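FIELD: query
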Amino acid sequence: MGTASFFWYEEAMPDLSQAPTKLQVLRASTLLNSLTSDEIEDLAGTSHMAFADRGSLIWLNGSEVDFFGVVGVGFVKMVRSTAAGINVTTELMGPGQVFGLLGALDGSGCPQTAQAICNTWYIKINKIRFQDVYRQNTVLREHLLRRTSHRLRRSFDMFARMSTGKIEQRIAAILFLLAESYGTEVGGNIILDVPLTRQDISEMAGTTVETTIRILSAWQKSGVVETNHKQITILDSLKLRVHV
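FIELD: result
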């Protein structure tokens, strides 16, 4: 299979039929579903559904916005710029996941850029309104603490892997990290249902687009991975793990 069909590009116009309801998004969130029914309905009533097409910026690093986001459909990547001016993707946030919440709670603003990597529907939740809910809900605070600890461990793991090893090792590590959150096992294969572009993978691995294409194409020819217009499938985890 050639690299021309390697990645999925969606139409820029929003498909209103794909838009979830605000209540559906809030109830699907593993963090926010700890709220009471009244709290969820109140947040739904004061929040707004928004659409970002592929590549659109939701906010820039250092921006001050009055909301944080919850992904409904699609994916949002969090990007940090290094001192050398290189953009590094640190996280991918999928359906039900919250982004920008810690900055909303501690007043630190937006330490990372948030960008849609495909057509994405997300909820904008007002920071001030949410702070009232946060202060009154002990279960939510406990969930957020556990979530933050887990994300820190994942971030440390990712940066440790990205700072050492060859490029092949970095890309393999990224695929396994994505498999933990977005992988579905089917017949011994692991399908990564994430519409990543070559640029996304190269940014996460700290390499060039050309190198990323070369490595993934070689793995595809040797039967380690399979690619199509929507996703990457890990065909042989043992062979791929050799590169980690």
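FIELD: remark
The first helix runs from residue 22 to 28.
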